[in-house]
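Changelog-linked ticket: zinc ion example.
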Amino acid sequence: MGSYSDEEFTGIVVSRQDYRERDMLVTILTDRFGFKTFFIRGARKRGFRMQAAILPFTHGTYIGKINDDGLSFITTTREVAQYQEISQDIELNAYASYILGLARQAFGNQPDLASLWFTQLATALQLIDEDYDPAIITNIIEVKLLGCFGVQPNWQACAVCGRDDLPFDYSEMYGGLLCQEHWHLDEHRLHLDKRTIYFLRQFSVVDLTKLNSISLKETTKHNLRRALDEIYNSQVGVYVKAKKFIDQMGSWDKILKNKNN
Ligand SMILES: [Zn+2]
């Protein structure tokens, strides 16, 4: 079990909780050590010097002491900024919380996974903060993180014959795509339409740092949500609290629309 002083890392503040009378425990997703919880002495005192650096959805450079086991410590921070829109909008907040919650479950205690994915996750939050469609950005992260959960669908070709020139559907039984010739092998395939399949395949390879713009029809968004819920529920099986809120937002939308019609 190691302990490392004066380590510099990039981080995103994930959550925090009051601790004792004046202190706080702050969980940060770091680019080098995965998710770590920091003991911040005096954080609840008025005029605390690192106040801005430990607000939820703040990102920046942190320097401190990292312990493999137990709590870590922050001594200095630099260039910290908050994702403003995310911190002020309850809906964006839910998507960002879900992405970070999913990442936490995906990485567990494997800092190398966190390092590998840190830039994509930070970019996802940045894009949501810049008004990119949060549902689509979330779908992209969901597709990309499947591998961390041990679900690695082949998005390139039919799982049975390897053909890539026929219409596809997704089969959980075969752990990936099935071409039309092999649809009969799995009657429980997800019966996804062409556009949904197209975007799932795109999402698996897209680099968020190179994303310029993206917009999808409501029906395609709905189908992507349904497909990923199915895959996550039956093949991944993780629970992230913020997801429930996102699902509820979906049904509120429906209720409001029905009332207006
Ligand atoms: Zn096939």
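Closing comment: Example verified and attached. The radius of gyration is 21 Å. The pocket of zinc ion is lined by residues 158, 160-161, 163, 179, 181-182 (CB under 6 Å).
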